[in-house]
Amino acid sequence: MRILIVEDEFEQRQLISALLKNNTEYDVEIASSAEKALNALNKHQFEIILSDWKLPGMNGLDLLQKVKEHYPNTSFILMTAYGSISHAVSSMRAGADDYLAKPFEKDQLLFTLSKVANARMLSEENQSLQNQLTARENLKSIIGKSSAMQKLFSQIDRLASTDVTVLIHGESGTGKELVAHTLFQKSERNNNVYLAVNCSAIPETLAESELFGAEKGSYTGADQLKIGKIEAANNGTLFLDEIAELPLSIQAKLLRFLQEGKIMRVGGHQEITVNVRVIAASHQSLNNLVQQGLFREDLYYRLNVITLTVPPLRQRLDDLPDLINFFIKKFSEKHRLEKISFSKDVYETLYEYHWPGNIRELANLVERLTVMHSGETISKSDLPNEFSIKEEGQIIELPEKGIHWEEYERSILEQSLTRCHGNKSKAAKLLGLNYKAFLYRLDKYNIDSI
Ligand SMILES: Nc1ncnc2c1ncn2[C@@H]1O[C@H](COP(=O)(O)OP(=O)(O)OP(=O)(O)O)[C@@H](O)[C@H]1O
What we know:
By secondary structure, the chain is of the alpha/beta class. The chain has 4 domains: 2-123, Rossmann fold, CATH 3.40.50; 141-311, Rossmann fold; 313-390, Helicase, Ruva Protein, domain 3, CATH 1.10.8; 400-450, Arc Repressor Mutant, subunit A. Helix content is 47%, strand content 13%. The protein contains 18 helices and 14 strands. The chain is elongated, with a radius of gyration of 28 Å. Adenosine-5'-triphosphate (ATP) binds at residues 141-144, 170, 172-178, 241, 283, 326, 359-360, 363. GO terms for molecular function: ATP binding; sequence-specific DNA binding. Residues 2-117 form the Response regulatory domain. This is Sigma-54 dependent transcriptional regulator. Keywords: ATP-binding, DNA-binding, Nucleotide-binding, Phosphoprotein, Transcription, Transcription regulation.
């Protein structure tokens, strides 16, 4: 266990290190001020900090607050002068794990350290059991009897024990984040941190400091050290959702981190070595973006070592009944309402629908219906407008929020094939296209057959 002793008085430092010297459990490092301690924390991970209250510059309580903010997993023991009980009280209130009144005997020091070390071990064990339970719960909640999902699950099983970078591709709402989390939970890193970052939600100007961190004073407003997401995920797993949205300038830095395992904070002068497994996801084709010069080719190849494809809901309609039952149960429990049920024609409508928003759209629909029609049997007229089947020949109305044309065209082509059980000439007729024009479009979207 790594221990950092923060003590400004030379003799005291020597004394404490001497007391711990013969104890092989502890690997001791020393800092003579809180500022130096923070520097050391930047470079290495410590399990326990043993700090004096009275220090030149920042005092022990200030250091404790910084540690709680930036290194919440590090335990903290404060040493106070005998009689300054108020210091001990305020340090415990600020989150210290224990305190030692000076002067103390060797036994007292060892006892306090082992108490804190044991508490850490218990909480780690607890966390690990908790993770296993959540893992089991979550695994149960990934629905997927369809052959497309079964194939995906066996790929996940094969990849889970490796540290390989994985790229998850799939339309919006198909469950990419759930797949990433399952990979994490099945991996050997499942006792460590899992951090998810949505790259499309970070403003371009902040992307670098969000991911790589920033030294204090490195830019206007950086009034304290900022630990980036990559560093915070050290020894764990980082999920980079919507990776295509990452600005090109940051893509170069990400590539360097993936290749060398090193990062540099904004305004920093020293590289920090990190050990992070990366899982990335995108609903857009990174290959297409590379062709358009919007995504770095080298980063694409680095990320694309293994690609998992999560199929859209319309290609795994076999899962629809299980998913519906799962969400009916989930939302009736969440809102403490009676379960709804669906009439036969509602099922038929849901089977024919093209599900542009995939599982998320289905979950939202079931939640809305549960809240509005608790305990009832849902009929077709209870479904929102987008589910009403258009009259023959009617022009489909463009929704207010617009559509993604290519996704729409692909979906129509796939639906026509599904409806005609894979018969291409019938499917072409259904869309009012000649056979050649239909084949041309299948080829354009790389659709083989259904
Ligand atoms: N197979 C599944 N079984 C049960 N729930 C699922 C399944 N797949 C997805 N969900 C649920 O659907 C919702 C959307 O899933 P998720 O956020 O993982 O999709 P996504 O592909 O990451 O979406 P986006 O591209 O928009 O980030 C979540 O609430 C998730 O729990």
